[in-house]
Amino acid sequence: MAAQVPVFKLYGEDRAWPTPDLIHCESIAERSRLHGWEIRAHLHSDLLQVLYIQSGHAEVEIDGQARVLDEAAVQVVPALCVHAFRFSEDIQGHVLTLAQPLVEHLGAALERPPLSRAVCYLAEAHRDSLDMLFGTLAREYGQHQVGRELMLQSLISALLVWLARRALAGVHAEAQLSDRGRMHLRRFQALVEQHYRSHRPLDWYASQLGLSVAHLNSLCRRLAGQSGLQLIHQRLLLEAKRNLVYTSMTIAQVADSLGFSEAAYFSRFFRRGTGVAPKDFRSQR
């Protein structure tokens, strides 16, 4: 672990890297107390940090994204991320700083290196194990017993495995959300197929699906590229085009079959959606 000595500085340091290790471990209070509990915006060119906030209040800002933490959490801050913190005076926790060569060495054993992006994981049910892990790491770092480097590397590896598993769990959760979203979209499309002639409002479809209008619109835009109302209108337009091309119904009959109260209203709707009047569309085809 002491293959090379980094020359990078920690926040507020006027000297080079303070230890011969490729890691540095200290309490959150130890450094933030010296700066009025505020670490102003800065970055590290080749250092990565993992903060474990055990208790107290923390305001975290990374690359312009702000977050408030009032419960136990692990925050990853990759190299080159502009970050700033503000802590309450009763803050409890640890800051683990890793030099990039060590990050790459340990992360190479994992299929999904967990330290490539800024992310925050709430401790939740893992609180006790994280307390033990960071507590042991801090004690081992502060002592110089036999096997110190091997022990530190083992503890950091355990932390990386925990982070990698949480990242993978997040990917699975996103996949499940995506699958649920597609299911909702398919159900919405089936409802549209049954009721598009009835001109029901979007909130009716949302209530049938057990969703809010905003959620339904969000799903439609994300998975189909259009709002919910646009999808309903597209289905009406498709049926109108079919009737105009493949039947001999008059414009008024087409309008009536699609639930429009007046042919003139249908013609305006059709022109808005296609750019041409129904009569011209039929003659062009």
TrEMBL record:
It comes from the Bacteria. Signal peptide: none annotated. Transmembrane segments: none annotated. Residues 186-284 form the HTH araC/xylS-type domain. Keywords: Activator, DNA-binding, Transcription, Transcription regulation. SUPFAM superfamilies: Homeodomain-like (SSF46689), RmlC-like cupins (SSF51182). One of its GO terms (molecular function) is DNA-binding transcription factor activity. SMART domains: HTH_ARAC. It holds the Pfam family AraC_binding. This is AraC family transcriptional regulator, transcriptional activator of pobA. It comes from Ectopseudomonas alcaliphila.
